[in-house]
């Protein structure tokens, strides 16, 4: 029989134990060891059965045990200390509160997924884990962030394997009442709701649930509302589920409904209204339209509202491939924003123009969410230095006339939340060196360039730590492997071999991530005999732990999983290579610390950042990776290995490229990695390996912190965005919008007519370092005034085709009034500050104090092919 109604019956805690409820509901416990240890002591067996989830634990503790704890003075002292510590954490001054005035009063951070803890499964992979780490680090730093997402009743999916190794998906139903969430309620106790208008007079209602991530509130919108029709109730059913209209409605609810949820939360709690809105990937891009709608309803015209919304917006792109961007049919978007749909005060054509791919190679029939995100944000960034370069090339069509290097997309390299991902044993070793408080500050706030205290840790202690973590991983793997084989239908008599799966003294390599084709899960299988020899080497064996999920709709990814599983099932190697299904946060927290080497072999440059290697590095695991994402930026031979990539002609043949890069991987493992691990001194210690571990912790540790990342966002993006937002009041926004329209209308008449250059050496074609070239440029501005533009000289290296690189810009100044024909003269010196091939050009850009940069409007006037004498290349 099935129940017709479901309830969550919560225990009534004795008065003296009531603080347990507050501790369980604030997700700080997920990164605070002392709080977790307190819950574990409530009922150690129940804690294991609950998977380390305090809410589930408290729902299962027998009443007699609670009564005993209520009389246990030692436990109550520990509980009071934990409650006081949480109170101090939530109310005390932190890094943000110690900064000079002018920082944003609040920042709203929107993401389609958040990986906070396995107890709140609202994530699928790196994007969600990054978002969760962003919130946790903001909390540690005291940054007044409000997180905004969706509450998926089935989460992502749970993965298992068939007997044949084929991925199978399961979608368990999540009851919000059994999760560490509270419903946002009005003053009268009724649930707070947001509502969106849908075509045909329908409505989409959503509740707002709140998770407390330390100091940061996370608002999650839930469409499972009785007033909704069945289709609308299912909008928030699954993370990245469905397609077409279903995904569009999810993203409308996230963006538009998310802004409305933030407004409701601030109204009910008194939290400061956000000055900055951060869109984490394009899924939440509609938030900009809702902010425009708010301003239009208050009396602004669309263009000035657009300027005000853009000023305080930050857009982060995480994808290096166009296929990773959500795009919708324009007709579908038009239907939802046309008559009877959402945002009735905004013309649907203005909405559609924001997502229009009106650039070479674009598809005008599609609405591009990332393009809209970039057009609705004055500041944008990629998530590593290399990814910033890739993004500038990828979106260069939005800024015609500018080289990719000048496309206004910056980069802030991702980081990881160390208290979440550092094993307790690693933290304790650090605390022994510098004390508990300093160790915690080093992991959360960061700020130092090196952790030199690691240099004083004895070699034997480091090696013992690494073996302890490896041993823990082996036990974890055996437990999970046995459960997986039982789920695949194996009987107990078939599983005796699992007791010998992996060895705590063997070099252990980890590989775990999502399974799109570009991450190349099966690259290690290109030469199976060579891999087998590596695994079974009599003196230097290797063992590999692999995990990963393919998207439910990605059969090619599932075939890759099956190919690897079938190899791992081979009795010859199954004790050396294992595949663990259902990769998630709980598994990852054992996997990263327990591996000696973290493997990453994507197709370069398709890895935006790749933070799993960062988490491994924080635990003293060495990286073996293609130079992509963050590894391209920070790799040094002292703490890892770079897998050579087959660039050039090989890249035109995927098979050839994979063969070459797999051979390079095998060679590194055979000739450098395994020998370094097994080369032992007389005392049995691998000195070179231990030194690489030490260098990893000393040099990489401070760089990979999410605390460093969030501080960079505050200093480089959030604070400038807040300043721009404050500068654009209604009058300033109206003036800027009118000015932009006037400049766009007049730009067709702006031109560089003639350039003259005179070198102080008097030599044509060559000049000496340090000499000066005097430029005299004739320009036509049409109806524009000199105050509307900046005339620049752009100088730098030139290649054989006369293309400029490594450029610097120099403003030129007007010389006198306009001539009778309307032309104006600009002049200025150009110093030759480098040797070798050197060249320059001149250009005209729009200029206004409220622009974030010269490329913002995508307008530039360049010289025609021949503009005058002695111009162009000076040195060759």
Q: Would you write up a description of this structure?
A:
- The chain is 37% helix and 17% strand.
- It is of the alpha/beta class and 876 residues long.
- Strands 1, 2, 5, 6, 7, 8, 9, 10, 13 and 14 form a ten-stranded mixed β-sheet that branches. A seven-stranded antiparallel β-sheet has the order 21-22-25-24-23-26-27, with no helix packed on it.
- Helix 23 links the parallel strand 18 and strand 19 (622-626).
- The longest helix is centred in the middle third of the chain and has 29 residues, at 459-487.
- It has 28 helices and 27 strands.
- The radius of gyration is 30 Å and the shape is globular.
- The model is unreliable at 869-876 (pLDDT under 50).
Overall number of strands = 27
Which whole number gives the mean pLDDT? Answer: 93
Q: Tally the helices: what do you get?
A: 28
Termini separation comes to 85 Å
Radius of gyration: 30 Å
Find the structural class using helix and strand composition.
Answer: alpha/beta
Q: Estimate the global geometry from the Cα principal axes.
A: globular
| Main sheet overview | 10 strands, mixed
Give the topology:
Layout: H1 19-25, H2 33-42, H3 44-49, H4 54-58, H5 63-70, H6 73-91, E1 107-110, H7 126-141, E2 145-150, E3 158-161, E4 167-170, E5 182-183, E6 193-197, E7 203-213, E8 216-222, H8 230-233, H9 245-269, E9 276-280, H10 287-297, H11 302-311, E10 313-316, E11 327-329, H12 330-337, H13 348-354, E12 366-368, H14 369-375, E13 379-382, H15 385-394, E14 410-411, H16 418-421, H17 424-434, H18 436-444, H19 459-487, E15 507-512, H20 528-535, E16 542-547, H21 555-568, E17 577-580, H22 585-594, E18 597-600, H23 612-617, E19 622-626, H24 629-634, E20 640-643, H25 654-678, H26 687-700, H27 706-727, H28 730-746, E21 751-759, E22 772-780, E23 789-798, E24 804-814, E25 823-831, E26 838-846, E27 873-875
Parallel strand pairs: 1-2, 1-9, 2-8, 9-10, 10-13, 13-14, 15-16, 15-18, 16-17, 18-19, 19-20
Antiparallel strand pairs: 3-4, 5-7, 6-7, 7-8, 11-12, 21-22, 22-25, 23-24, 23-26, 24-25, 26-27
């Amino acid at each position: 029989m099935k129940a017709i109604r479901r309830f969550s019956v919560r225990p009534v805690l004795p008065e003296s134990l009531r603080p347990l409820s507050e501790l369980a509901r604030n997700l700080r416990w997920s990164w605070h060891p002392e709080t977790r240890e307190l819950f574990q002591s409530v009922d150690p067996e129940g804690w294991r059965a609950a998977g380390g989830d305090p809410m589930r634990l408290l729902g299962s503790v027998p009443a007699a045990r609670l009564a005993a704890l209520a009389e246990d003075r030692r436990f109550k002292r520990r509980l009071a200390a934990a409650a006081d510590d949480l109170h101090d954490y939530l109310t005390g001054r932190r890094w943000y509160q110690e900064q000079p005035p002018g920082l944003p009063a609040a920042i709203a951070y929107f993401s389609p997924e958040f990986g906070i803890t396995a107890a709140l499964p609202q994530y699928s992979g790196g994007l969600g884990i990054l978002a969760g780490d962003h919130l946790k680090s903001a909390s540690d730093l005291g940054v007044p962030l409000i997180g905004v997402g969706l509450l998926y009743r089935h989460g992502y999916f749970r993965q298992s394997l068939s007997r044949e190794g084929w991925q199978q998906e399961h979608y368990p139903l999540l009851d919000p009442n059994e999760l560490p969430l509270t419903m946002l309620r009005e003053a009268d106790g009724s649930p707070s709701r947001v509502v969106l208008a849908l075509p045909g007079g329908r409505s989409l209602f959503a509740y707002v649930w709140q998770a407390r991530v330390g100091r940061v509130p996370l608002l999650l919108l839930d469409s499972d509302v009785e007033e909704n029709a069945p289709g609308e109730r299912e909008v928030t059913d699954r993370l990245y589920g469905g397609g077409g209209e279903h995904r569009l409605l999810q993203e409308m609810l996230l963006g538009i409904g998310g802004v409305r949820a933030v407004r409701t939360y601030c109204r009910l709690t008194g939290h400061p209204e956000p000055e900055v809105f951060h869109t984490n990937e394009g899924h939440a891009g509609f938030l900009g339209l809702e902010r425009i709608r708010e301003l239009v309803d208050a009396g602004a015209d669309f263009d000035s509202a657009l300027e005000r919304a853009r000023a305080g917006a930050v857009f982060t792109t995480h994808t290096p491939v166009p296929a990773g961007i959500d795009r919708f049919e324009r007709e579908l978007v038009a239907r939802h924003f046309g008559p009877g749909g959402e945002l009735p005060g905004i013309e649907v054509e203005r909405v559609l123009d924001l997502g229009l791919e009106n650039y070479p190679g674009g598809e005008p029939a599609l609405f591009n969410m990332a393009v809209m995100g970039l057009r609705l944000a004055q500041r944008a960034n990629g998530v590593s230095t290399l990814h910033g370069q890739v993004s500038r090339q990828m979106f260069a069509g939005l800024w015609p006339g500018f080289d990719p290097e000048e496309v206004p997309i910056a980069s802030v390299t991702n980081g990881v939340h160390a208290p979440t991902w550092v094993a307790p044993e690693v933290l304790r070793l650090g605390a022994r060196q510098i004390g508990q408080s300093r160790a915690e500050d080093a992991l959360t706030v960061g700020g130092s360039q090196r952790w030199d205290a690691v240099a004083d840790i004895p070699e034997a202690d480091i090696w013992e730590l690494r073996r302890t973590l490896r041993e823990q991983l082996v036990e974890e793997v055996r437990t999970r492997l046995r459960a997986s084989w039982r789920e695949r239908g194996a009987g107990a008599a078939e599983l005796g071999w699992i007791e010998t799966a992996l060895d705590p003294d063997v070099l252990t390599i980890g590989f775990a991530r999502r399974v799109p084709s570009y991450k190349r899960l099966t690259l290690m299988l290109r030469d199976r005999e060579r891999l087998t020899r590596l695994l079974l080497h009599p003196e230097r064996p290797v063992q590999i732990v692999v995990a990963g999920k393919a998207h439910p709709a990605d059969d090619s990814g599932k075939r890759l999983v099956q190919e690897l599983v079938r190899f791992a099932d081979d009795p010859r190697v199954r004790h050396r290579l294992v595949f663990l299904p259902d990769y998630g946060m709980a598994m990852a927290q054992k996997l990263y610390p327990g591996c000696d080497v973290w493997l990453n072999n994507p197709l370069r440059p398709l890895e935006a950042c790749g933070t799993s290697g960062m988490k491994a590095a924080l635990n003293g695991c060495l990286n073996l990776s293609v130079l992509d994402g963050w590894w391209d930026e920070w790799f040094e031979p002292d703490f890892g290995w770079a897998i050579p990539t087959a660039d050039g002609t090989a890249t035109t043949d995927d098979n050839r490229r994979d063969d070459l890069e797999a051979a390079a991987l095998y060679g590194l493992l055979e000739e450098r990695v395994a020998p370094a691990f097994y080369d032992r001194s007389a005392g049995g210690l691998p000195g070179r390996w231990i030194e690489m571990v030490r260098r990893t912790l000393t040099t990489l540790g401070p760089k990979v912190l999410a605390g460093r990342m969030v501080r960079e966002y505050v200093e480089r993006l959030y604070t400038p965005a807040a300043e721009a937002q404050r500068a654009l009041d209604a009058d300033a926004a109206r003036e800027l919008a009118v000015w932009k329209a006037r400049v766009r209308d007049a730009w067709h008449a702006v031109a560089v007519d003639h350039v003259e250059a005179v070198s102080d050496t008097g030599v044509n074609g060559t000049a000496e370092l340090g000499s000066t070239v005097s430029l005299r440029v004739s320009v036509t501005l049409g109806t524009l005034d000199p105050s509307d533009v900046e005339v620049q000289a752009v100088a730098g290296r030139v290649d054989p085709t006369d293309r400029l690189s490594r450029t610097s810009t120099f403003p030129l100044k007007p010389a006198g009034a306009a001539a009778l024909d309307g032309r104006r003269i600009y002049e200025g010196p150009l110093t030759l500050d480098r040797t070798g091939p050197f060249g320059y050009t001149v250009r005209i850009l729009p200029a206004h104090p409220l622009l974030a940069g010269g490329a913002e409007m995508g307008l530039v006037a360049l010289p025609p092919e021949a503009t005058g004498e002695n111009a162009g290349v000076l040195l060759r």
